[in-house]
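okkk here we go again. third time trying to get the zinc ion bound version out, last two times i messed up the smiles copy paste (missing a bracket lol). double checked this time i swear
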Amino acid sequence: MFIGIDIGGTTIKGVLTDRHGDVLSFGKTPIGRTAPEIENGLLELIRSLSGSLGPKASTLKAIGVGSAGSIDKKRGMVLKSPNIPALQRLPLVKTIERHTGVRAFLENDATVAVIGEWWKGAGKKYSNWIMLTLGTGIGGGVVIGNRIYTGQTGNAMEVGHMSIDYRGRRCPCGSTGCLELYASATGLMRYARGILGQGSGSSLEARMRDKKLDPRMIEEEALRGDPLSMHIYTQVSTWLGMGVANLVNLFNPQAIVFAGGLSRAHRLIFPVVKKVVHERAMEGLDKGIRYLVIQDHEKTPALGAARVAMDSIKN
Ligand SMILES: [Zn+2]
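finally!!
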């Protein structure tokens, strides 16, 4: 048995799985704001997952953790996480090992999503494909010849920091015009806030009076035909399409799998992305590409983390 944990910007999710990837138990908890809150939430989730093993608790072999931010696998901690500052420098792996008595392993969140999909999702059907995680930022992964390509130090496919505008907005990474500044959930919200409140008569503005604006609300209004909400998604998808066109030119993939909260709005995003890719990628390269959504938003990345743990104790 293995536990896989997926630490995202708002929630920690976890699965208990066997070595075939059959999920026996699933749970989630909101991520805390302070370091002790994060640690407690994480350990509580692990306890409840392993608790479902009952008397077979000793069959738990290892725990894999996928986390947002730049990570140090050897030391088992997140070095930098602009979206969850309290996570920085927390000795995640040591804490888990001390409390559970089993070995733990840390991996990047985009990588565990790719591994999960490669193991139990679309990856079973394709050998050359890309994954893009559209969340607070944009992460990515690539499978080439049925192998996950991670680069020299495990940091390949920092898709979010592919520039689409050299004179664009400044990015904390040091570059300008990075894709995630425009086409992540954060980028979408920034663009929406910039154009809302100008008395457009949009149904979105009416809803904002009672509730805090979020990407889901914009999606709902766009699907109801609100012109301003539709415009927001079209604009953000156009920017995303520019990034995807670059990737299509580089990798000539069979499929592109979208993950992350924003990918739930695929009905709005895909048609625009496909059009932009058709216009911008090299002639013929866009033919036959399948645009897919991650098989299971909730469990796939955590399953990938469990697989990391499984492969790590073998080595
Ligand atoms: Zn950047």
